[in-house]
Design a protein that fits this description.
With 64 residues, this protein is an alpha+beta fold. The protein has one domain. The chain contains 3 helices and 2 strands.
């Protein structure tokens, strides 16, 4: 699917969505996470359980 980001959380942050306001919001949320929650988010992204779909929608899935 076009616009899907998986794997490295930094790659997800570098991906520029069509809406700059959404991009800023996602960066702010990720960068301001408590270190523990940031490590959890990184792990979820790395294992494909959390991904940014269509550049502006967060999708959490338990399916590997």
């Amino acid at each position: 699917m076009e616009g899907t980001v998986q794997g490295n959380p930094q790659a997800a942050l570098r991906n520029t969505p069509a809406n700059p306001a959404v991009d800023r919001m996602l960066r702010d949320v990720y960068e301001n996470l408590d270190p523990l929650y940031r490590r959890i988010a990184d792990a979820l992204i790395l294992h494909g359980m959390l991904e940014i779909v269509d550049n502006d929608t967060l999708d959490a899935s338990c399916d590997p």
